[in-house]
Amino acid sequence: MAITKEKVEELSEIARRIRRHIIEMTAEAGSGHPGGSLSCTDILVTLYFHVMKVDPKNPNWPERDRFVLSKGHAAPALYAVLAEKGYFPTEELKTLRKIDSMLQGHPDMKNTPGVDMTTGSLGQGLSSANGMAIAGKLDGKDYRVYVLLGDGELEEGQVWEAAMAAAHYKLDNLTAFVDHNGLQIDGPITQVMSPEIIQEKFRAFGWHVIDVDGHDFEEIAGAIEEAKNIKGRPTVIVAKTVKGKGVPYMENQVDWHGKAPSREQAEEALKSLI
Amino acid sequence: MPKIATREAYGEALAELGEEIKDIVVLDADLSKSTKTSVFAKKFPERFFNMGIAEQNLMGTAAGLATCGKIPFASTFAIFATGRAFEQVRNSICYPNLNVKITATHAGITVGEDGATHQSIEDIALMRALPNMTVISPADAVETKQAVRAAAMLKGPVYLRLGRHPVETIYGENYKFEVGKAVILKEGKDVALIATGVMIAEALKAAEQLSKDGIDAMVINIHTIKPIDEEVILKAAECGSIVTAEEHTIIGGLGSAVAEVLMEKKPVPMKRVGIRDVFARSGKPEELMRVYGLTAEDIEEAAKSLRR
């Protein structure tokens, strides 16, 4: 469906709230991964608030669209989105990573309503998404499966095993996103272990490839729509993103991959997210 | 009794169950002719998925199918299922407690001529260390058929350990398999022989030999290594000494599991017959069993040494 100007404004507002949650949650937890959570926020917001057929009151609804956060360390973004969507109260967010919390450091489908797959160990999510897409085809259901991978994550061999399989089984009900922020823990992906050229690799594996600006709701929504109409092969949307997006001092800074802001830093970050 | 490989029984059982349980799907990694999932594939091609030589993706895909209510049987050789894809089994299957049945064939050294790279001798240790996992190691074709059915009925991850090589049939057709419930194959009072898988046949032969020397040995089949039947182990301990026998390294397998129970509840002298912390080699299954100390004579000797 085409996206209206009003919808874009609404999504921008939700994304702003999600980013505030990410900062508050990680600051409160004293650990976590703000950089990669902020980079994928707009993709998650588009999926959950514009595209996906889900019912927060019935998280296990068999007909629902599925989402797998293969880059599980972006859990703060997913939890914030699920809370804003109504799966659980936003007050839960401040329990992130604490003992007794249902919000584990990485997504746990058994503990958190709305989490469709347990992830966190990189490289595994695309395989599970394939399984969900195959099940959908077997059962003749029209739900779609979305999966989000990190660009550094593409260094895992299993991703390419799964990429091969998705094309082999013609999983056109599957759409993958690559959160292409260019940074991983040890530095720029091109310096650590380049997965480039990402688009060419997926193309060579038999995928339909779309490039988007990962912070442009119109482009993201348009690409998802295009993917729905591609038959006989899976689609990957390579989303150019900015790690730490929305918090100026975190943007494109590799240090903010896996470090929580202090109280003062959080206050400063929140000032940019008004 | 004819000798039948447990993998053969698996192929038949799966094809039968597929008729009955429509949610069963089967995945393999280019070894369907060897694991015998090809029997299912022929009957239900639409529910069979060859994932190619990619075991990590095999396990992950099975996990995804399970989240949608399918009952996936994921098969390949034991070495790859539990070694190559260990962390996928841990994080994508056991941690979320998904209903995936990992049915691995070609376990142990009776793989034979392929040699050490293909001989899985640490899979029981790896699989039983995982929370939520049930570990089953059937002794023969009859037990395998029932274990496959039981695994399908059980909710949660199961590791089924099967072999390549034909083995003697121990059980009659009226045998009733129950997950977690060990079977006393022969009562006895002097020493208890606790075995699993292909070592059951050896333990029975050892008991026969021991009886000739006036030693009355109890023989127990622990087909479910996890959860282990503590009750039967404590009963075995009443014999005063225990010998365990497994086609697996003595580190972390059946012997270790039995020792864990005994040490906490009722310590008695015991010996572990198994592969003694070495990689094996190429050879005929029977030759390997002899060279690596996995014969009835080895069990007999261990039992006698405990009584000296």
Automatic annotation (TrEMBL), chain A:
The Transketolase N-terminal domain is annotated at: 14-265
| Keywords noted in UniProt | Metal-binding, Thiamine pyrophosphate, Transferase
Lineage, top-rank taxon, reads Bacteria
Single GO molecular function: transferase activity
Q: Which cofactor does it need?
A: thiamine diphosphate
The reply on keyword Oxidoreductase is: no
What PANTHER family is this protein classified in? TRANSKETOLASE N-TERMINAL SECTION-RELATED
The record's comment on protein family reads: Belongs to the transketolase family.
Query: What's the protein name?
Result: Transketolase
Q: Which organism is it from?
A: Thermosediminibacter litoriperuensis
Automatic annotation (TrEMBL), chain B:
Q: Name one Pfam family in it.
A: Transketolase_C
Outline the extent of the Transketolase-like pyrimidine-binding domain: 4-169
What cofactor is needed? thiamine diphosphate
SMART domains in alphabetical order: Transket_pyr (SM00861)
Keywords (A to Z) from UniProt: Thiamine pyrophosphate
State the family named in the UniProt similarity comment for this chain: Belongs to the transketolase family.
**Name of the protein this chain belongs to:** Transketolase
